[in-house]
Amino acid sequence: MTFSDGAFWVFAATAVLPAAGILLSRSIVRMAFLLLVSLAGFAGLYLQLGAGFLGFTQVLVYIGGILILFLFGLMLTARFDVHVRRRVGAGVIVPGVIAGLSLLGVLVFLALESPWSTEAGAAAAAAGAGDTFQIGLKVLGPYVLPFEAVTVLLLVAMVGATYIGRAQMPGTPAEGERKE
Amino acid sequence: MIPHLSLSFCLYVSAALFAIGVYGVLSRQNLIVILMSLELMLNAVNLSTIAFGRAFLPASPPDPSGPQVFVVMVLAVAAAEAAVGLSILLAVFRKWRTTHAGRIDMLKG
Amino acid sequence: MNGLFTILDAPAAPAIGWDDLGGILPVLVLLATGSLALVLDLFLKEEASPPVPAGKWPLSFVSLLGTAVAGALLCGHIGAAGKPWSGFLGAVQVDLFSDAIGLIVVLGAAFCLLGAGDALRRRGIEQGEFHALVLYAAASMVLFVQSASLVMVFLSLEALSMAVYILTAFQRDEKRAVEGGLKYFVLGGLSSGFLLLGLAFIYGATRSTNLTDIAGALAGGQPPADSSLLVAGLGLTLIGLAFKVGAFPFHAWVPDAYEGAMSVVTGFMAVAVKAASFGVLLRVAVLFGGAGASGPGSPEARGALLAGISGLAVVTMIFGNLAALAQSSAKRMLAYSAIAHTGYLLVGAVSAMEARPGGEQAAGAGLLFYLFPYALMSLGAFICLSHLGEGAEDRESIDSLRGLAERHPAHALALLVIMVSFAGIPPTAGFWGKLFIFREAIATGHWELALVGILTSIVSVYYYLRLVVAMYMLPQEGGLPAPSLEARIGGKLALAIAAIAVVLVGLFPGIFFQISAACALR
After folding, report:
1. How many CB pairs under 8 A join B and C?
2. DSSP E strands: which ranges in C230-290?
């Protein structure tokens, strides 16, 4: 997987700029499509970094699955609140500030002393380090329990989401809600 | 081979996206947008994980395809999170007829 | 080893066998019982009117049996004083510490299920999903504490969080429940993001995803590849875990989620989620910041963790206790008091990171000891609120508890024992818990934490006793209907067990402290 520098910059921009656009946009549908573009940018970056399997999984799972889920959620609910206001709640600024500061600290340190070079990485990548075959071995080897933990997670999500989501359809108001 | 593909640069991209996600979660009022921002955060972390994994390759690869496996599993987590989040969103919408977080304020918070 | 999965074409590939499955047997039992409850529900008849006395009793029976078996397995392992065992090629580490925390988690699940039968029946939502989710959550929590790799830490945390989000909003036709679940979900998702970033940074800094390997490298005096990155990663991980345990200033979800959820679920959250998260917090703190025999490989990490956790402890103790003073709802008061107790537990985590004076390397004995009576008290208190409830409502406001001593003297007595113990008045279990935590803190040189703890404990006496005064000294207000409690066997049983156990731990603290010391992290 060797693209040019230019391609890398293009993918990085494809990931970041639409994401920033999400913050600026005022229409949810537009945001969803910007998210699509951003996620596609991520897929490109993964390919650039030698993680081919992940790149394609990203397209399948995120763009093919999760984003569609979002659009469903949007269509089921967003009839009234298409426009979005911006307001920072006072109670939640603290964690945001802490996160921002720690990120900033890390960035400064990394920019000053980045001890890694990635030049030889491509050779190792070409040797099949990120191969689907290797991933398969991993999943049935050291990652078999994490894999099972994922299945538990998905089971929980499935049971829970169907339970919470199935009561009444959004079109039919629940008891006591008709007067609104 | 790809000189500009330094770890720092990937981390910059990742940090920018993570920050956008955090800002989105904290500042946006629409629940769908909050969910999208959560997904952005997870994606940003995935990018750093992959970048780290790639950066270690020249030295001694302790676990060459490990990061990829991890990230694939995080994708599953993201999917589960989206499903659970949207089901709660539907429940919210059923009760309030809105997906606007600012109007859901029965509890004192 | 009997190979279940042997990897073809990979010479010398280690195999995963029956031994590995046997090691996580309690988890498997919980998972299997959860699925069984889900399937069993399909064969149980839906009764026409909600207040059916027995309801779907097989659901409760089967799921309680599952927790009993899992608890017995964990007890057996503690009793046999098994050596630490690492399985699934390093993905999990089972030791007495994880067993002890797992036991508290299973205890929380069992009490929740005991009280859940009538709580769900009253609301007309007695569904197998509830039992299944509680058991899945408990299984994920046990896995969470057993995690020995960063991957497992994240995945099991997410699994348990998803289950608890849903449980919070389980009363899906109740606005408060849905709102509590929503807030918990959004802030929980945010914290998961921080935690995941922290784990990615730890991986970046140490080049390994396996906690045991990382610990080995650090203890061997090998510095991490990038210690500033390690510190940032640990900081973010700490933020993520601080959210989960509800430490100030990451507590915003606690009051709302605790209030919105059904009281039985609140008890489960206050005990099991907190115990499991503290288990991992302590493991991470001792691993990266402990003054073990071999000394930390990264002094920066140790400094940052010590400063971070003690800072969180101080502000959490102060905030939780002061905020609890102002509450008029007993449930919200207990929610803020849960925050305050998080602060005390954080003090225990700080002293666990210090070297023992006597050369003993057991860390976190005080924290473990504290968790046990705390679990009993919280479960008892929340189950009592649920037990006295009517219809979709639990007995929540302090005013509604007025005159309880006359109408339900047994309940009032149980709640009295629990409140006195919460307040830490000797010679109750809560007193010993605080004593051991603060004594450890002073012995390891953190007298300022102990001082703040003692002062805030004195403040806490006021709000706990307010509840007692309402029950015993104030006349009943208005004509609140007295629910008939005859049919509610599960909740009654749970409350009785909790109160009696609190008294027992208060009378014989030595035995329990010895067990905690034996199970402490090594």
Report:
1. 112
2. none
Query: Which ipTM was obtained for this model?
Result: 0.91
Do A74 and A153 fall within a single domain? no
**What's the CA gap between B73 and C63, in Å, rounded?**
29
Q: Over chain C, what is the mean pLDDT?
A: 85
Distance from CA of C158 to the nearest CA of B (A): 7
Give the H or E element holding residue C277.
helix C274-289
Q: pTM for this one?
A: 0.89
**Is residue C15 situated within a structural domain?**
no
Give the C-alpha separation, B54 to C160, whole Å: 31
Structural domain span for residue A50: 1-86
Q: Is the pLDDT of residue A82 over 50?
A: no
The shortest C-alpha distance from B50 to chain C (Å) reads 9
Chain B residue with Cα closest to A91: B109
Has residue C49 been placed in a domain?
Answer: no
pLDDT (0 to 100) of residue A120: 44
Task: Examine residue A104 and state whether it is found in any structural domain, yes or no.
Answer: no
Cβ-based neighbours of A171, under 8 Å, separated by 6 or more = none
pLDDT score, position C301: 83
Joined tokens for residue C231: 């510190």
A45-61: b (≥16 Cβ within 10 Å) or e? bbbbbbbbbbbebbbeb
- The CATH number for A63's domain is 1.20.120.1200
The CA-based dihedral angle spanning residues B97, B100, B102, B107, taken in that order and rounded to the nearest 10 degrees: 50
Domain membership flag for residue A123: no
